[in-house]
What does this fold into?
Amino acid sequence: MPLGELVFANLLDQRVYLAQGESGPPGIYVLTLPGRAFGFVAHRAWKVPTGLVSEEVRLIAPSGRVAYRWGPTVRRMVGSMDLTVENDLIEDAVLNEAGTYIASFILEDQVLGEIEIPVYLQTPEKQLPKHIEDGLKRSDVIWVGPDVKPDRELGGRNSVSGKLVPAWFAYRQGKIYLLSQREPGPEEQTVPGIDGHEIVVITRRKGRDTALDRFRASVRILEPGQPDYDQAAAVLADRRRSRAGPPEDSTARWRERCVIAELTPLVSV
It folds into this structure.
């Protein structure tokens, strides 16, 4: 016997949910693949007997593999005569594929409903929100590193945590370019977490320690010999304040010792 009934469910982008409510068009958006999805709302309306149950939501990718799990978490159901309505904001889903996913809604290990959810690869904007653009254009340094919990003693979510380091960078048309030396040494900076899929970026006012914005960015390591690598290296060489000698000397040295990363800020415009 089924434990209960899933009357209605939807997974929709948080921006759509705020504008149109739970009946808005379903869909999840990512900027890169693999990449963290923009926040989306999981809406469920259950008819289930009164009591505590374990609830879970799974996303099945077009390839057939389980791409994401939310839960299991314990829920209190109000009874079969009334709807138990739940809305949860999901912000930690990292997806590897675009296309049509299957969302499975599960109570006590029973799949009680499934719906199709499109996952869209959104084209990154060439211009970021003004406050983020200003923070990047008006400073020579950003704080970067792997995602860490904010330190309350340093002021909360916008504070610089222990694993974040200051790094010089170049910014162009919505992309941040970072140079990171493979082996730590005095010649160039080494950025922790640059070999992962995501990194945390904090901008600050020039000449001050005050943080302006904190956001995640997807990481793409550029390969030497490709046009985008050469373009990024030229932008970084032009940006480098303490460069000695012609740009070609710097870029040749970087090719041997460093990686160049292209960061795509995961922010909605």
